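> @MW can you paste both from yesterday?
MW: sure, first one:
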Amino acid sequence: MRKIKDVLRLHAAGRSARQIGASVGVGRSTVAEYLRRADVAGLSWPLPEELDEEALERRLFPPPPPAPGRQFAEADWAAVHRELKRPGVTLALLWDEYRGQHPEGYGYSAFCEHSRRWVGRLSPVSHQRCASGATASAMRPASGCSSITPAPGCR
């Protein structure tokens, strides 16, 4: 911020943008931008006493306003993927139903992209809790004989 104060001080002294840039160590366009922002903020040299470095920065560089974006009605992605498990149900069919309820909603490609993102958040791990020894599962060959060490009577 020290450079901004120096730019304003030198400008008030009648220096040109080129001279200010050379003495402060910034480009001529930066000097012009600082002076434009100070003019928009209604600031000139000498600066008010109560204006510290942070307040000066906030006045010259306010945060940009939020970008006005289109807001779309979100689908119930859990219900969408529950329905996809049913036979004959496709994403296109579900999108068609979604657009029937929300005519200004997502287009098909955006609907599919949001669906893929939702699936990507799901955990592929199945967490099952059971007491030790309560369930048992063993993998056996279909014939009942092991292919590694044959039991007597198995060929």
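MW: second:
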Amino acid sequence: MDASGHGHTAAGASRGGFRAERASDGRYRWQLKAPNGRVVAITPAAYRTAAEAERGFDGLRAGADGLVARITHVRDGIGWIWVVPGSRGLPEVRSSRAYERYATCQNAFRRFVVLLAKHPALELPDPTGPLRVAETSRAPGASRSPEPLRAPDAAR
């Protein structure tokens, strides 16, 4: 979460990437930005915490190859949007804007899937454990992730 308490940005998401933001109702919604900074997709679903929003995004990212969108005409105005239906037929994610042409909307969904698949997996906290690790639990100067195990050197 940033200093204002209104958003949580994944590393490197200042221009593009995943971002979970707190809405006026106190719940969190996420968005995905392209490298140029334009919002590509938003989630209509609301989550209680930023960590839940991150888990929802990461679940979608893990299944990016199998995503299917419903392209529909917007009710108010002119244009087309793509929607990925989730459980119980409720939208899981949708385009952030309407497109003038049907084919442009199709291409936007294809670009979203590619962007989603390229996004690195988020380092998510254990949902059953604490969401934050106290800074004092690590030795000063220790890295956040443990070093990979290496085979012992046979020459020693």
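> thanks! Confidence is low (pLDDT under 50) at residues 1-13, 129-156.
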